[in-house]
Amino acid sequence: MKQIQWFPGHMFKSLRQIRERMTLMDIVLVLLDSRLPSSSMNPEIFKIIKDKPTLILFNKMDLADDSILNQWVEYYEKQGYLTLKIDSQTGKNVNKIHEYAQMVLKEKLERTRQKGLKDRAIRTMILGIPNVGKSTLINQLSKSSATKTGNTPGVTKAQQWIKLSDDFHLLDTPGVLWPKFEDPKVGYHLAITGAIKDKILPEDDVVKYALTFLKKYYP
Ligand SMILES: Nc1nc2c(ncn2[C@@H]2O[C@H](COP(=O)(O)OP(=O)(O)OP(=O)(O)O)[C@@H](O)[C@H]2O)c(=O)[nH]1
Ligand SMILES: [Mg+2]
Questions:
Q1: pLDDT, mean of residues 42-63
Q2: What is the full DSSP assignment across 13-56?
């Protein structure tokens, strides 16, 4: 199997931007592909988000094998993460994201209220590897919002926010992370599902891998 050496320069730039923007966030939405919850997880992600509250979203739930997906749900929930399965294309469960974000931030929101402070809007951003559905989710979320974009001064420059509601604001540009590559199998999974360009791995190998995989797991 061919090992991919794949860390384009724009990923360094993207990583720097993510780190900058992270300081503005109350919670991050980590978007995974339900068909490949492991391969679509960036290996460094928990170092990048540190102890920032996180909601894990399994996108493309419509394309996944639910019994296997449920094992991943269990895996992350055991580690203390709240997760939600969504379909960004049809919008299934997308309207639950706000409520889930509030659940993740429950204690923090309660503390604010106890101090008699008024809540400010929850600020969030989407993080995920290429093709996982970040833009589709942003479009789906903003469909129902009255105010499309607003300007809030950021750390270095003004950031564009989508006001999904008065108390839930989404940064309009998602953070793009690189996928996991240490296991050569992952490269094949990403090629088959379209997360990496067709040219990166030899087509014959990808097709051979896909057929072997399907024969083994879905004969
Ligand atoms: N079946 C299905 N397809 C989806 C879903 N979400 C996104 N897609 C499709 O997945 C493809 C990639 O979606 P994008 O929203 O462009 O992904 P992205 O993460 O913004 O990709 P980059 O901008 O390249 O990083 C598109 O063809 C979408 O229509 C989903 O929940 N279900
Ligand atoms: Mg996009």
A1: 92
A2: HHHHHHHHHHTT-SEEEEEEETT-TTTTS-TTHHHHHTT--EEE
